[in-house]
Amino acid sequence: MTTKIEDRPRSGDKPGRAKLSDKIKHGLDESLILITGAQILIGFDYQGVFNPGFDRLPEFSRYLKLGSLGLLLITLCLVLSPAPYHKLVEHNQNTRRFHRFIRKVITLALLPFALGLGIDIYLAVEKVLGTVQAIVAGGLTALVALFAWYGQGLVFKPLEKEAAMQEDEKEENDGKLADKIEQVLTETRVVLPGAQALLGFQFAGILMDGFEKLPETLKYVHLASLGLIALSVIFLMCPAAFHRIVEQGEDTERMLKFSSVMVLAALVPIALGIAGDLLVVVQKVSGSTILSLVCAATALTLFYGTWFGYTLYRRARIKQPSPEK
User: Residue 300 has what pLDDT?
Assistant: First the structure.
């Protein structure tokens, strides 16, 4: 029986050891899993404020919902940060530094996500069973999530890093064009769910009773935020159209550069849209214009500071002579 060339083991391959490019793709796929879970809760927290039942909640519960929304927006900010980091710091190259960055932000993002999930469970149970049962349910949910995600390091022995780092060192900056394009399209898929969840909320929010009671100014802010998120979704869909229509499905450097620009461009309006709707939500809950402006400005600073400020700072630092890549 003749063995096909592609089926023969290659001399450099090691069973069970993923290539650096595969590790990065897996990290981006894991970000996609996390954002898919977070987007549901973010949409629920945004949309819930406009439902009639929200006004009947105790004041403490209403502010708890704001806290949950804030925690989930932190999760969103962290999960979306690998895309600008890869573009601005690594220039789409595969490096161990980028792989470490993905691992760190996912690890950090799980904490606010677990806490936000616990708060939303508390609010749901409190409505039906009462405060004591809700505290138990919410606290237990957060603890189970934290143990399930962080406790694994206590149960399983971490992988030895030295051999993997040596293998990764050989692969750095040697990624194929097809791999880079696949990664940029994966980064697009990571950003898109958050944008589409917000866009769906914004369209649905206009039809809710709570929207009719908003002051005209806040209605205009909501509409402006809707337009910004729609613009972000349009930008995120551009790479697929460009790849099919312009490049006829071929992998080219132009496709990689265009997609990178579109991903970065989409992050600008999405941050403005999130901050705008956060202003509307905080204003509706608190009635304080100052507090709503502060919260919106804080969110905008967090997003732009993480996505662009930190990445540009890291790029400037990396350009300096350093013994570590």
Answer: 94
**Block residue for tokens 């997003």:** 303
Give the contacts of 256 (CB within 8 A, at least 6 positions apart).
92, 177, 180, 181, 184
Q: 176 by DSSP, 3-state: which?
A: coil
For 20-34, give the DSSP string. HHHHHHHHHHHHHHH
CA dist., res. 311 & res. 318, Å (int): 10
DSSP assignment string, 237-276: HHHHHIIIIISTT---HHHHHHHHHHHHHHHHHHHHHHHH
* R_g over Cα of the chain: 22
Which sign, positive or negative, has the C-alpha torsion 152, 155, 161, 167? negative
Judge whether 117 and 139 are in contact, CB under 8 Å.
no
**pLDDT above 70: percentage of residues in the chain:** 83
Tell me which residue of 181, 195, 179, 192 sits closest to 244, measured CA to CA: 181
24 and 102 in contact (C-beta within 8 Å)? Answer: yes
Residue 216 pLDDT:
87
